[in-house]
Amino acid sequence: MAELKSHNFCGTKRSAPDDSEDIKNDSKKSTAMISSLLEDPAAAVANTRHEFGEHGGVNMSIEASATFTVMEPETMRRMFAGELGPDRDFFIYSRHFNPTVLNLSRQMAALEGTAAAYCTASGMSAIASVLLQLLASGDHVVASRTLYGGTHALLAHFLPRTSNITTSFVDIGNLKEVEKEIVEGKTKVLYFESVSNPTLAVADIPELCRIGREKGLTVVVDNTFAPMVLSPARLGADVVVHSISKFISGGADIIAGAVCGPAKLVNSMMDLRQGSLMLLGPTMNAKVAFELSERIPHLSLRMKEHCRRASVFAKRMRKAGLKVIYPGLPDHPHHHLMKSLANPEYGFGGMLCIDMETEERANKLMNLLQNTTQFGFIAVSLGYYETLMSCSGSSTSSEMSGQEKELAGISPGLVRMSIGYMGTLEQKWSQFEKALAKVQDMGLSISNN
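Structure (tokenized):
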């Protein structure tokens, strides 16, 4: 568990204490402290403690050890019995807890406004671990029909086959449909993305969380598309999951994930006998955690620029006659909802879509944008400092059937763009305009009318 405690872990291994300090009470005080923070995620991250290096370095040291020594043999028994743990600087093995990974987890908990967090080796491992912890054989999930392809496959195919866990996929924007699909005594989880991949539909997080509370469900929200922009836990969500590989990393060089939620849940996921994280072992490497912890302090600056450029480009692309999907455009069906939910100064996100209607047109446009004008790269993933683009139907949503993609609103020619901030805005727009002119010369342009 990564609770936001005010004391510092020291660099020297301590002997087991003789006192009977009540750790749980201390944790409650810590959680109360968190709730008093400003709700601005950047302020919350800045307020969490700074971990200094072993020799006074301004950056923390990397604890690369797989295993940890104890000074008295009795201490190990007490650690395995759960009497002593990382909140008091006692570590056993890095698959359980690692000080460097724990520091990143504290930052993620602060970012999302939760009492605890645990960082994992990938976004999918975070999602799978949460669901396997919350669900048992015979349980049921209500989920958005528009999800990242890997998540959809996990819910639609893997969990029914391996665990007898079933899912009803719904239009998450239709609250009556959501309620209708909840089966009393069987449905345990309501799962959706804050901003859907790839269609950029915005979830009414407060209302969906209200339904979850009334029905006794655990609400799990994937906030990968909107870190800093939206704060699902502050809007009522129980659990927030991330693929840290995307915007939070920002470098397209690391695979990582995170589970942010109540201390009770994260503790249960780390239980020696029943914990999904403990027993499945999606362990983050300490060196990866160190690199990521150095990027979170400037995440707010990066997100603001991603969002600013996406907003400018979306408006200009629309004016140029393209069919653009972006929550920041006034005619987006969830424009006002997004505006009401977003944290101040972050705009409407760094993702936009252009619907070219057919895969052939989409591929022609992307080919010109990458290979002729250097506007961006044809690649999956998002959050990179360069613009990344892909035709979602044949790439990141390819796990879905044709009918499922149609129900989810994924056009065969939908080009998903993660807008980067490399170069100047006018330089990148000029590159886009040149490619668009060539598309129009070929007679392949799509009107937004």
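The two ends are 52 Å apart (CA to CA). The first helix runs from residue 23 to 35.
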